[in-house]
Design a protein that fits this description.
This protein is of the alpha+beta class. The protein has helices at 3-21, 78-87, 100-108, 118-123, 139-148, 168-190, 199-212, 251-262, 268-283, and strands at residues 31-35, 40-43, 59-62, 67-69, 93-97, 129-130, 153-156, 160-165, 195-197, 247-249. Zinc ion is lined by residues 29, 77, 96, 98, 159-160.
């Protein structure tokens, strides 16, 4: 075994340990893979906890998913990984997990596409939701194909999340970023909603990517309707235009504010009590 292969196996073990330690996976969930060379991939075995793997447990497969070596079998979710490698020659590692907060957004059908945090915009851009697919069928790879050309991370409807990067650990860190972002988004929404980073500022942040040597994610769509095409090549990010402000209130927050100022909501009991009170006042 080459030193490179040893290192890749060690990285997969470590990424699995961290996924389990952070409760991004339960039981035997999740799977991790890495490119070994132009003919072979290394991937995690099925039916084992990814928190307690050893390097010798890994499965070596070809790009059609056929096993080359290993005592165990690869995950049934391997086709999703293969789809990512086929569409992204730059990708060297893929991580799939079910982190609870990000998966909550995926279950609620709420994508993480708002321009909220500078580091998320530079490292991941927007995080869309790939359509639901029955596990172990070609539906999931088909759903992932739509976004993978432009996104390094996405939510999987009613399932979890998947991330990719030049190597296993960079894909793992993107999973951490997605879960952290989901947590912050949830808290901000509980507290009344996010202020968004303006489109002008987002474009400035995108310009900084080159400085940090980040080739992806893809640029923002000039026309968001472009993203409706089959193979998405640009990203839709909710970042409102603003003449001067770098931070702008979220539109839905503004609507909430308006209704707070413009209308009064009463329960049926409160309303009848008010009428009864008015009638009494009139009689007196
Ligand atoms: Zn899964």
């Amino acid at each position: 075994m080459t030193r490179i292969e040893e290192q890749i196996r060690a990285d997969i073990v470590e990424a699995g340990r961290r996924l389990y330690a952070r409760a991004y996976i339960a039981s035997n969930d999740g799977n991790i893979s890495a490119r070994l060379d132009d003919r072979r991939l290394i991937t995690t075995p099925k039916s084992v906890s990814k928190g307690f793997m050893t390097p010798d447990m890994m499965v070596v497969v070809d790009y059609d998913g056929k096993k080359i070596s290993g005592e165990r079998d690869a995950s049934t979710e391997l086709p999703m990984h293969l789809e990512i490698y086929r569409n992204r020659p730059d990708v060297g590692g893929v991580v799939h997990a079910h982190p609870p907060l990000a998966t909550g957004f995926a279950v609620a059908g709420i994508p993480l596409t708002r321009a909220v945090l500078a580091e998320v915009i530079t490292t991941l851009g927007s995080i869309p939701i790939a359509a639901y697919g029955t596990p172990s069928t070609s539906e999931l790879p088909d759903a992932v194909r739509k976004y993978i050309k432009a996104h390094d991370g996405m939510l999987l409807a009613n399932h979890g999340a998947v991330t990719c990067g030049p190597d296993v650990m960079s894909a793992y860190y993107k999973m951490e970023t997605i879960e952290h972002f989901a947590k912050i988004s949830l808290v901000a929404r509980l507290l009344g909603g996010e202020n968004l980073i303006s489109r002008e500022e987002v474009e400035r942040l995108q310009g900084l990517r080159g400085m940090y040597g980040i080739p992806s994610p893809a640029p923002l769509c000039a026309d968001p309707s472009e993203a409706g095409r089959d193979q998405v090549v640009c990203q839709v990010l909710e970042a409102p235009e603003s003449g001067s402000d770098r931070l702008v209130p979220d539109v839905s927050l503004a609507i909430k504010q308006a209704s707070r100022d413009g209308e009064i909501r009463l329960t049926y009991g409160e309303l009848t009590a008010l009428i009864a009170d008015a009638v009494r006042t009139l009689k007196d």
